Every structure is written in C-alpha cells, then in structure tokens.
Amino acid sequence: MTTPQDTRPEVPGTPGRPEEIRAVPVRHPGRWVAVVVIAVLFAQCLHLVLTNKDLHWDVVGQIFTYPTVIHGLYRTLLLTVLAMAIGIVGGILLAVMRLSHNPVLSTVSWVYIWVFRGTPVLVQLFFWNFLGAIIPNVGIGVPFGPTFAHWSYNSLVGLFTAATLGLGLNEAAYFAEIVRAGILSVDEGQSEAAASLGLTRGQTLWRIVLPQAMRVIIPPAGNETISMLKTTSLVSAIALEDLTRAALDIGNRTLYIIPALIAASLWYLLVTSVLSVGQYYIERYYARGSNRALPPTPIQKVRAQLAGLRKPGGAVR
Q1: Is the pLDDT at 161 greater than 70, yes or no?
Q2: Residues 275, 302, 215, CA angle at the centre, nearest 5°?
Q3: Domain coordinates in residue numbering, the chain
C-alpha cells in the first residue's frame, strides 16, 4: 500500500535523497607520538631500576621491614592523625570566627590565619621546639600576681608535642579557609529557612550548613591529609625520629643511603595510596545529594571494561 507521498512525482531539478554521511574518524598522530615517547622513557626507567646493582634491592627489602623503620612509620601515622585532628577542630572554629559578625572574633581569626599561613611550617617547628629558651616555665595564675602552678616548658613540651603543635596549628590555618569556602558555597536561603523554623545559629551550622558543605570540604581535606603525611618528614629537622629520620639514620650507619630512602618512599607511597582510596569513597558518599548517578568505583570500572571487551568486535562502550 502506497501513500500519496510515495506516488508523488519528482519535480525536475529537485535534489533527491541525500547520500548517507560517511563518518571518518579524526586521526591524532600527536597522540601516538606521545605514547611512543612515554613508552620509551618508561622502558628506560624500568631497565635502570631492574639492572642497576647500586640500588641494592635486597637491602631495600631488609630496611623496609626493619624495626626502627616500622616504629618511625607508626610515629609518622600518629603525628598525621593528631595534627589533622587539631587542624580540623581548629579550622572549623577559625572559619566560624572568621564569618562571625563580631569584629573581635573575625579579626583574631584573620590574624591567626595570616601569621600561620605566612610563615614556613619548618620555622614553626623550630619555634615550638626552642620556645623554652625564652619561656623556661609555664604557669597558671593571676597576671602580675601569684602563680598557682608552674611547669618547666621543656618537660611539658617534648619533641613529639612540639611537632604535633607545629603541624596541627599550622594545618588549622589552612583548613579554616577550606571550611570557610565550604560554608560560603551553601545558599543563604538555607540559613534563612532554618532561622524561620526557630533553629539557632549553632543548630543551623551543625545540622543544615555543614552537611551540605561537606561535598566541597571533603576533596581538599583529603588532599590536606595526604599532604600532612608527607609534611611530617620535616620533624626530622628537630631530631624527632619519624619514618624519614629512621631511614636516614640507617643509611648513614650502613652507607646505603639511596636504598634507605627508597624503602621510606615505598612506605609513603603505600600509605598515600590507601588514603587516596579512602578519600575516593568518602567523596563518593557525600556526592549522593548532588549527582543523580554516583560515579563508578574502580572495581565497577574494571568490570565495565571487561564486559566491553567481551562484546562482538571487542569495542568498549
């Protein structure tokens, strides 16, 4: 059965049905050149790593599990946890103070952030370590009056405490800006709606604003945690035996400095990899309210790739 459109005669000069478009894939020769260059460089590095006898991989394995190195790793992890705890709590307080309508609180927060972000963390570590030279005793009492109790600064603030204070208080200044950016990313209408329901400023911040700000806070917070793990290596400058200092001491005693540094680097890579995986899943958890579909996990990506390879033609879709 034909329709009037099918039996309509063609008008002379009217173009007929256009031919099908043949899609020609765009060639990218620059990509292949880059792949070849990267492959050659990777092969050279792999050859150097596997054939250079001066690396002493057997020594690297021994240093990797040496008790002193394991103890230094434990101290590094403990420093990271304590410093980040101080930084997170202090950063939230400083961010709230910075956004406060009270000029005294906002000014104090701004000055703190200005000082601790404007000076190197290594200088701050030295400052906390040698502060006992100008303040030999720390006491509790009335200004210009009697002192109820006092302690020696050096006995109260040891190397580990000085390192924790130096790293944690410095981190608080950076984390305050992260939290402030997260709070400012939440629409003001949320706070106004909470106020209309009778919630106080504290309840609004804790129950309404911060949960929504977490999707902005979590990514840089994870980066700061990984960065803090590596920043703890600076405490070796004040003679605190962390992972880096333990590896250097072994290298100086045995003259296997490069193998010792490789062993320490492998531990840092292992721990940062674990933290990166944890950061990914935490970001994925807090992305539930902003994305319609959650991003696939690494295992799901691998399964999708394998499923695509099993399709006819091996095309990954």
Answers
A1: yes
A2: 40
A3: 55-139+150-288
